[in-house]
Amino acid sequence: MNASYLHHVVIHFPIALLTVAAGAFVVALLHGWPGWRHVGGVLLALGTVAALVAVIAGLMAQDRLLALGVSEEAVNAHRNMGLITLGLSLVTLATWIALATKRRLHALGPAAGVAVLAVVTAGSVTVTGHFGGTLLHPEISPLPGVGAIAEAEPRPEDEPEVDEAPSEPEPIEPEPIEEEFARGAEVFDEECAACHGPDGQGVPGVGGPPVMGTDALQVDPPPDADRERRFETGKDVLDYVGETMPLDDPGGLAEEENRQVVAYLLADRGFDVSEELTDEEAEAISLDR
Fold first, then answer.
1. Cα 101 to the chain's mean position, in Å?
2. Which of 145, 161, 197, 180 is nearest to 264 (CA)?
């Protein structure tokens, strides 16, 4: 399991645990229920551990994100807020342990202090999660010019000069594969785009590799990929997707859906396949070209 995927999975726990812990401390303060203070303390401890794991995984994954072209400003903002949240969580936990040990949590002042620290920590983890979301959805970023992966526009001076030639009849454009393989495109959007991106180019921070484009479906697994088997033929891809995808429900695709989405991916690579993609068709496709 790579660090990006681990971070993506673990980060939901501190967000939930630290937020609910803050709620428990506030309820205990308002109603004088000591049991809720203990619940808040346990949730706070679990949330702090989860935050520590998430921060470590995030620090290990940040170089990979920068190499993929993720905005350095967005990465730094998310990292710094994560460290602040972890620090607040540790301070709040240490305060709760110290007061609980001295049996002073029943007093209004100490109980209010812990509740305030817990609420500030919950707010911090919420902001941290928001900055993490900007890595995948740059349109929600409060930082100007921050995008997940910048799409470089070609500059006019970089465009090669083209000699004007006599006008010729425009060739008939082939039918887009999204229309020719409509059902496969639909299955991809529903089951695959969350990890591999709506354009099949992968999603930074999630770990889904590119599955569309010239660099997709390589014969040998990429260095950071989870798969170990080689993709020598289209049948290898068909079998692999059918056994291991989607990630949250391996083998959950119906056989027809599996064939349709793999046909869509192979067609994007330029292979002549039918939308039904029989075993014979898939076996005849050599990816080593």
1. 40
2. 180
Output the pLDDT for position 82: 87
Q: What are the sequence ranges of the domains in the chain?
A: 3-140, 177-284
Fold observed for domain 177-284: Cytochrome Bc1 Complex; Chain D, domain 2 (1.10.760)
Q: Which two structure tokens, joined as six digits, stand for 284?
A: 């005849």
pLDDT in tens, 193-234: 778 778 877 776 666 778 887 777 778 887 767 777 888 888
Integer angstrom CA distances of residue 64 from 57, 76, 80, 176, 210: 12, 13, 17, 33, 15
- CB-neighbour burial class of residue 57 (10 A; exposed 0-12, middle 13-18, buried 19+): buried
d(CA 155, CA 176): 27
Choose between 90 and 210: higher pLDDT: 90
Q: Which amino acid is at 180?
A: E
